[in-house]
Amino acid sequence: IKVGSLARVTFDAFKGDVFKGQVSVIIPAAAEKSRNLPLEVSLPNSDGRIKAGLLARVSLSGSPRQARLIPKDALVLNKGKATVFVIRGKAVFPVPVRTGEAHGQLIEIFGQIKPGQMVVVQGNERLWPGQKVTIVSPQTSQD
């Protein structure tokens, strides 16, 4: 769902009436436990029937899509350009990316980063291409 997506809205107070609107604002802060994402839908209300406090039910149209997400902290921003350092072997290499929609602490990226590829999240502002790194992660096992 994105700004401009169509929304079908019904109100319990107006049985059988369907209002058509559009998503006008998406607030990028989902409630952690419920995973609800607040948004605003703009509806035409020329006759003034829609009032504050009415219970609305909203159906959104859209199709699911896959997105490549990374932690926002993995981005290195410099002069309006975004770069992400990826780990290949025991060294890091910068990959230019374009950013998309934010999802909490994650952000959608477009570029030459493969799914599952490791990216640097801390200390990335001081790295240079080919620099050797030590991987420190809670998922790393030393078997």
Protein model, in words:
The protein is mainly beta and 143 residues long. Helix content is 0%, strand content 40%. The chain contains no helices and nine strands. The protein has strands at 6-11, 19-26, 39-42, 56-60, 69-71, 75-78, 81-88, 91-103, 106-111. The strands form two sheets. The protein has a five-stranded antiparallel β-sheet, with no helix packed on it. Strands 3-2-1-4 form a four-stranded antiparallel β-sheet, with no helix packed on it. The protein is elongated, with a radius of gyration of 21 Å.
Shape: elongated
For the biggest sheet, the summary is: 5 strands, antiparallel
Low-confidence stretches: none
Q: Report the end-to-end length measured between terminal Cα atoms.
A: 43 Å
Give the rounded overall mean pLDDT. 88
CA-atom Rg in angstroms: 21 Å
Strand content: 35-45%
Number of strands: 9
Derived from helix and strand composition plus strand pairing, the structural class reads mainly beta
SSE succession: EEEEEEEEE
| Helix count from the secondary structure assignment | 0
Concise summary:
0% of the residues lie in helices and 40% in strands. The protein has no helices and nine strands.
Q: What's the helix and strand layout?
A:
Blueprint: E1 6-11, E2 19-26, E3 39-42, E4 56-60, E5 69-71, E6 75-78, E7 81-88, E8 91-103, E9 106-111
Antiparallel strand pairs: 1-2, 1-4, 2-3, 5-9, 6-7, 7-8, 8-9
